[in-house]
Design a protein that fits this description.
The complex is a heterodimer. By secondary structure, chain A is mainly α. Chain A has 9 helices and no strands. Classes of the chains: A mainly alpha, B alpha/beta.
Chain lengths: ~220, ~350
């Protein structure tokens, strides 16, 4: 049965959260995950910021990649409308993606500082570090994979799903770490050690979703 | 042709993003003019967006700040009755429960975004900015320099012994302030003497070790809450280490003028005899002050100290040995945090009430 674009997007959205979780399946975005998951409020704030940046940059980067960077020949091969520039500029992809992510993160920083100074200070250095969060660049790079054949809606869904998947994972971890405070963790494993072990166990747990949906 | 396109794409994208951010900055970071009311006096208006500390300095209200607004010294406490927003995590480390209850905040961490009503200590409103000229400078130990400043405009400063000033260290277009205790006596109102130890890479100490006689220096002051007991029977106990000598010298020189019979003790800890400064000066002073007892203790006497017949070990042990266990006393401590901690324990053992102990640790 032919899939409509909306169904495809919905499937991709769910898959990005559960089976292909950017953090737990692909292990991208770990450093801010480990550093900020101590506190539930900060995790929530960080997760939302990452989601916002991921969605917006995924859509922007899609527009730039397929509107400008891709060559006319490749576009024709993939059945897409012709880009503005005929030449193949895909070698600029990484640079362009990083630039747009950096710009967006600056914007998010300004908005957060204006409307919630407490969150701004709680996020501290990790807010500008969203720029180099490999999860966000990972979403942009993965969505332009020619084998996946994502259209705009699918990209937006993928971006949103990845962001929410990150949010889910970081909030789960924050909850677990809150409970860890009362647990008897062996001295050598306290802090980073037990956190990474738990991340691994969570990743295995998420593997249980395999087969529910597939990307 | 590809190269041209690559350059074009990158430039256009960069330009577009920059334009977007500029527009956002104009709308999001523009707080408009804000009115600040200090101590119920005439309020002043300033463009929002700067920190409260900068706003006050621009208005010539020089509250103390030893770290240049980075939130590491905790000196710039003010009370904000309205318009400050929530207390930030960077401030929590410096505020105790009482301060949080009466709306005390760190001025360097509060951004001016709306109209504010604040209260600063009355002392701070008396602080002025002075321009001074270096008249003399000499090294008293291998790394400590004694600097004499002559006040030009205003020409006199009223200060109490034990207080400190803030030197404005020029950093490009602006200045960062660093605090140093005054070691001259209050009766000489037109001059300020400072004792500064060179800290490798330190902003203030590098600047002050390089100024030469004739150079102009800008400073604000006086600051400091130490108020000496006027009672002529109360014993003054000064315990210092390193360049903690500065405020002690001010206190003792002041006493030699106004109360030469006052019982006082100076305990000074240094590593070797080369770091024991002003020994001869205090010997002379004890001739004028019969009740002054001076104790120097070397903690790491070396080869050159073979002839040292004074005490050795840490200074708080010397305090433990010589200090009387009762009587009216007031203590002033100035030196490294570990020395202050150890000495505080000894003073507690000697039953000196906490409110009679004052210390400076910067």
């Amino acid at each position: 049965m032919p899939e409509s674009a909306l169904t495809a997007a919905a499937v991709i959205f769910l898959a990005a959260i559960l089976t292909n979780n950017i953090l737990l399946s692909k292990f991208l975005g770990m450093c801010s995950f480990i550093a900020l998951s101590r506190n539930m409020k900060t995790s929530w704030g960080m997760g939302l910021a990452v989601t916002f940046v991921t969605v917006c940059t995924a859509m922007l980067n899609y527009a730039i990649y397929y509107g400008v960077l891709i060559s006319a020949a490749d576009a024709a091969l993939q059945g897409r409308p012709a880009p503005w520039i005929d030449a193949d500029l895909t070698h600029l992809a990484f640079l362009v993606f990083i630039m747009s992510i950096a710009g967006f993160v600056q914007l998010v920083e300004m908005v957060i500082e204006r409307f919630s100074p407490v969150l701004y200070y709680n996020l501290g250095i990790y807010l500008p570090l969203i720029t180099v969060n490999c999860a966000i660049l990972g979403v942009s790079v993965l969505m332009v994979d020619p084998d996946r054949k994502f259209d705009f809606l699918a990209t937006a869904a993928y971006g949103l799903g990845s962001g929410l998947g990150y949010l889910l994972a970081i909030c789960l971890m924050a909850g677990l770490r809150a409970k860890l405070e009362h647990a008897d963790v062996p001295k050598a494993l306290r802090g980073l050690g037990i956190t990474v072990i738990i991340t691994g166990v969570m990743a295995m747990a998420f593997m249980g979703f395999t087969g529910v949906v597939d990307l | 042709m590809e190269y041209v396109y690559s350059l074009l794409v990158l430039s256009v994208l960069g330009g577009a993003l920059a334009a977007l951010l500029l527009i956002a900055d104009r709308f999001l970071c523009n707080y408009g003019p804000c009115t600040i009311n200090v101590n119920e006096e005439e309020p002043f208006t300033i463009d929002g967006g700067c920190t409260l500390l900068d706003a006050l300095y621009a208005q010539r209200i020089f509250i103390p700040s030893a770290c240049g607004g980075q939130g590491t010294c905790g000196f710039c406490k003010v009370q904000i009755h309205s318009g400050g927003g929530p207390t930030l995590p960077t401030e929590l480390a410096f505020l105790n429960a009482e301060e949080m209850a009466n709306h005390t905040r760190l001025a360097c961490q509060v951004k001016v975004k709306e109209d504010m009503v604040i209260h600063v200590r009355e002392d701070f409103l008396n602080v002025q900015e002075f321009t001074a000229v270096v008249t003399d400078a000499r090294m008293v130990t291998a790394d400590t320099r004694e600097i004499h400043l002559d006040l030009k405009e205003p020409a006199e400063m009223d200060f109490r012994p034990g207080q400190y000033v803030q030197i404005a260290v020029p950093t490009g277009k602006t200045a960062e302030y660093r605090a140093y205790s005054i070691c001259s006596k209050p009766s000489e109102k037109h001059k300020v003497e400072l004792l500064i130890r060179l800290i490798p890479g330190g902003l203030g100490s590098t600047y002050m070790h390089n100024v030469q006689p004739g150079d102009e220096v800008v400073l604000t002051g006086p600051y400091g809450e130490f108020a000496m007991d006027e009672d002529p029977d109360s014993q003054i106990i000064c315990v210092g280490g390193g360049c903690g000598m500065a405020p002690m010298r001010s206190i003792l020189r002041h006493l030699s003028e106004v109360q030469p019979d006052r019982p006082c003790s100076l305990y000074f800890g240094a590593r070797t005899s080369r770091d024991a400064m002003y020994m001869k000066e205090f010997e002379e002073l004890s001739k004028k002050m019969p009740n002054l007892h001076v104790h120097y203790a070397l903690s790491e006497p070396g080869e050159e100290d073979k002839d040292w017949d004074g005490e050795t070990g840490f200074i708080h042990l010397s305090v433990q040995e010589h200090m009387a266990a009762d009587g009216k006393r007031q203590a002033f401590l100035c030196g490294p945090p570990l020395m202050i901690e150890a000495t505080m324990k000894v003073l507690e053992e000697k039953k000196l009430p906490r409110e009679k102990v004052f210390y400076d640790e910067f």
